[in-house]
Design brief:
7-stranded antiparallel β-sheet; alpha+beta; 2 domains; about 350 residues
């Protein structure tokens, strides 16, 4: 059963958290407008489009991304105020254990963790689709496909290769396709270039050579142009790396399976992003424990000292979260372990500070 003291702490926790989000996001939006104002004016973005096609989706994305920072600051701020007002001394003197006082904190943290996990994996990705489309239109330069000498599996047993791809003309140069059956090559198509025909919605190959293999026999066929029935479209080449931000959790899982089938090396990077998106919400519990343990003691200097320490630890956590996944990708470490390393490290810090907290 929730008691008055539980509701009191939960209310303070949630109110401070959402108030801090509102205040910080106002500052963030002002800085973002200042940075992108020249692009908005140059590309003639309307005020209505800026507000309803961009910032209405920008705000929840960045608010959820930095929610651990907001949680930490919120806990440190209102808990230090309670300690400064001797509220913890009164509660502990009344026979309420420090362990019992953690219950409303973790209940509020559970609410925020569940909300962050659901929004980050199922709601915000759909909103990100609109945000990314706006950025492609009004912020970013024209998309350029930078990969060269691409070789990937497009369907089971069917592989394609091209030397370079032009996103502006939807043309793949020095294209080839191979079909295998029971590990044996049965068909190969090579061409000078392949181009997307927007009227037919098909790929057409030019100056092509077809080779059909029947055991030791081979059949050749050449031509100037041939329409194909390849299953991919130019949209598959126009995806920026941040397109995963617009994918829900089930969509990311399907995308990872497709990358594995294609033998695409960026699959590990997508896995890291997936687990980073999952690990971030659960850090709320760790940072809440650290925040309470730091702030429940009344110290000289007031809440400012607690807030300063809290911000430093929060940014340290976010920094570790970023570099840990990059180190895992660069060294061949298991990406799941790499992403969760900051949570593991900060768990030990939280346990240590909890044991040192006044009880």
């Amino acid at each position: 059963m929730l008691k008055k003291i539980d509701l009191y702490i939960i209310r303070k926790f949630l109110f401070t958290f959402f108030l801090s989000i509102v205040l910080i996001m106002i500052i963030t939006v002002v800085f973002d407008i200042t940075e992108k104002l020249e692009d908005f004016v140059e590309k003639q973005a309307t005020v209505k489009s800026i507000i309803f096609d961009y910032y209405i989706y920008f705000i929840p994305y960045f608010a959820n991304m930095f929610s651990p920072l907001f949680v930490f600051i919120s806990v440190v701020f209102f808990t230090s105020r309670m300690a400064y007002n001797n509220e913890f001394i009164a509660m502990l003197s009344a026979g309420i254990s420090f362990k019992r006082l953690m219950w409303p904190y973790f209940l509020a943290a559970f609410i925020l963790t569940s909300l962050s996990f659901y929004l980050g994996n199922f709601v915000i990705p759909k909103a990100n689709l609109h945000r990314l489309e706006f950025e492609d239109r009004y912020v970013h330069n024209s998309f350029v496909y930078k990969d060269h000498n691409v070789y990937k599996q497009i369907r089971p047993g069917i592989y394609m290769y091209f030397e370079a791809y032009s996103a502006s003309t939807n043309t793949a140069y020095k294209f080839s396709m191979e079909r295998f059956r029971n590990d044996s090559l049965v068909y190969k198509l090579t061409s000078s270039f392949m181009r997307w025909d927007s009227t037919l919605n098909k790929w057409s190959v030019y100056n092509y050579l077809e080779r059909h293999f029947y055991g030791i026999k081979e059949k050749l066929q050449t031509g100037q142009r041939k329409d194909t029935s390849l299953v991919f479209t130019p949209d598959d080449f126009h995806k920026r790396e941040n397109i995963v931000e617009a994918m829900t959790l089930p969509e990311i899982n399907n995308y990872i399976q497709n990358l594995i089938m294609q033998g695409d090396p960026k699959v590990e990077k997508v896995k890291a992003f997936k687990h980073q998106r999952m690990a971030m919400p659960f850090s709320t519990f760790i940072l809440t424990l650290i925040g309470v343990s730091l702030s429940s003691r009344k110290v000289r200097g007031g809440s400012g000292l607690h807030v300063g320490i809290g911000i430093a630890l929060s940014f340290t956590y976010i920094f570790l979260m970023q570099i840990a996944s990059n180190i895992a990708l660069g060294t061949g470490m298991n990406v799941i372990l790499g992403v969760w390393i900051p949570n593991i490290i900060f768990s030990f810090i939280a346990i240590y500070l909890y044991r040192k907290a006044p009880k």
